Amino acid sequence: MNDRVLGLIRRQLSARVEPSYKAGITNFFRGDPVKFHGVRTPLVRKISAKAFKSLKGTEKRQIWTLCDRLLASGYGEERTIAFDWAWRLRRKLEPSDFKRFERWLAGHCADWAGVDDLSCHALGYLLNEFPELLPRLKKWTRSPRWHLRRASAVALIYSVRRKSQLDLA
Predict the structure, then answer these.
(1) Distance separating alpha carbons of residues 122 and 110, to the nearest angstrom
(2) Which domains does the chain have, with CATH numbers?
(3) What's the predicted TM-score (pTM) here?
(4) What phi-psi label fits residue 19: left (phi over 0), alpha (psi between -120 and 50 degrees) or beta?
């Protein structure tokens, strides 16, 4: 099933490539090691939603495995899908998922767009629901990795918008 879902996603992405958009986004992120298929984000999110529906009843750990495989591709659109699925799993998130998100940030976010996508949504939700994780986030402010330093601020946006955790922000 995993290969079928990933194959379907990749075929749908390939069918919606816009060469001029690909050239523009590649130029915008020049210098970053992220590759792009050349599909606009609203279309990527539609593909993501449809694929996620096909995973109904699938265990969270299996979806995480799919997310890891999407992230391993190195394509920005596939990263967007992985982070979108993390957001769609938000009601199933638990404190142990913090480590996974930390690993994703450090290993699969070579640009600010990836950091912001994960941090504003799934990571932000996780921190809002489990404020006991905030001291771990605060340690990121002194990280030598810019990804974690940026995420330490951006992840608080979710809570600030809801007027919670304002003492840390």
Answers:
(1) 18
(2) 1-92 (1.25.10.90), 95-169 (no CATH)
(3) 0.93
(4) alpha
